[in-house]
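Q: For a teaching session next week I want to show students how multiple molecules come together into a single three-dimensional assembly. I've collected the sequence lines for a complex. Could you give me the predicted structure tokens for the whole thing so I can convert them for display?
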Amino acid sequence: MRSVHGARWTPWLYLAPALVLLGGLLVYPIYQLGLISFLEYTQAQVSGGEPTTFQGLANYQHLFSDSQFWQVLLATVLFAAACVVSTLLVGCALAVLLTRVRAVPRLALMLAALGAWATPAITGSTVWMFLFDPDFGPVNKTLGLGDFSWTYGRYSAFALVLLEVVWCSFPFVMVTVYAGIRAIPGEVLEAASLDGASQWRTWRSVMAPMLRPILVVVTIQSIIWDFKVFTQIYVMTNGGGIAGQNLVLNVYAYQKAFAGSEYSLGSAIGVVMLVILLAVTLVYLRLMRREGREL
Amino acid sequence: MTLPGIRAARGLRVRRPWRLAAEASALLIALVVAFPLYWMVLSAFKPAGEIESTEPRPWTLAPSLDSFRRVFQQQEFGRYFLNSLIVAGTVVVVSALVAFLAATAVTRFRFRFRTTLLIMFLVAQMVPVEALTIPLFFLMRDFGQLNTLGSLILPHLAFSLPFAVWMLRGFVKAVPEALEEAAYIDGASRARFLWQILFPLVFPGLVATSVFSFISTWNDFLFAKSFIISDTSQSTLPMALLVFFKPDENDWGGIMAASTVMTLPVLVFFVLVQRRLVSGLGGAVKD
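A: Of course. Below is the structure for the complete assembly, covering every listed component.
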């Protein structure tokens, strides 16, 4: 825009602190992550007892031939997909609901949602565990489930974590989509209702297309967050569930590296995650470009 | 009465039962969403016998501070709380300043690699921080930062930056160019414009952005668990909470009280900035 006063290096001067921080603590660790995934790196190398040796793709071969890895990958994808879909459905439905009610119920729902949003993942996890506790929890008592343990079975444990994840992540979707709906000119919605469009029809044919950019943003954000769920799984299923039945990639990598001291395998899992999320990002950039939005 | 007036009146009458139903469900959902938090605070105040009761009741007639006492009397609880505050506070302030400068650079200047940089900021948000725990662990070890608050501050600083820059762009862009021209014509230096004119104008945006860096830092569990391995005087709040988890007999009263203490500062922060947050988000996503 302006370069009249602009010495050419001024923007770089402004960018310098950010670039230094990101270079040292983001770019360099990513490089290291890749590097470690090609090395033999266990407790012996960490303590300096044995020299590190280059392994080529051996770690990846080991990983890809391990059936547990594929099982965890599948679980991660399905779990993330379930979380994303539920979060978006709940968030969008409640955003629409917010536009239909007067100030008091709106404020109540907004505040409750902000509360859920603000709750740290770790305390959210402990509270939901307590709510569903087989002995002292109110949920089992109310539903008459007796001493049914939610964390014992694989699917019920995933379901419990899913509920917590949706609870703490729908508010972002709701608030953002609500802000987007409010920005739609009133005349457009009025015209739709004058034409006799039903609520569903108005949402599908008028609001959803206008909200597309916002919906893309919240969808991609949700995919990224839910694919990386760590704390909830770690705390609620006590490190990945009985015999690792509730592991997701993130927790799996952590357990391999820090519990099993297999740092190179953990890094290889990290690289796999990085590649998957990068692919999601590329799709995102594609979509944004198609919308013709300038960065 | 004009035609639109009649229509509006009729529309209102037809919609009324629907609106009441919508309002009733909104209130009901609000209750459901708030229930876990209510239960947390309630359980924190319940006396021991009522928490570990097989007949949980949604109220208590004998509120007690015993659970809180157990939390605060932990050896170094105050230390943990202070450490969490120091880490989150440093990250919020420093990342706001650094992100403000970077956002100014990418919105108010045209230069080579600008678009590339913006895409990099976007891509950086997608990086699974958790996967980087392994290389960061070795990085911190090599720089002797393990078991120090620095090992928590530095990574969070880096990871909160991309999103902060991305969000601040909208706020910086919203300040009219003409204002900048006018400032220079009046003889203001670049630095003066930056800190005395642009900074105060962008401040509401900085607050909205801070919420995110504050929360992600305050909530951190993974780094605190991985980088503070032996020196508990450098631990943060999540550790004070995990103490109450025992292999067979969880101390639920202690867990709920510690959770309450940990959630409260974030809640207060959130409620204080919620208006700016909503408008800030709208701006960040729309622009």
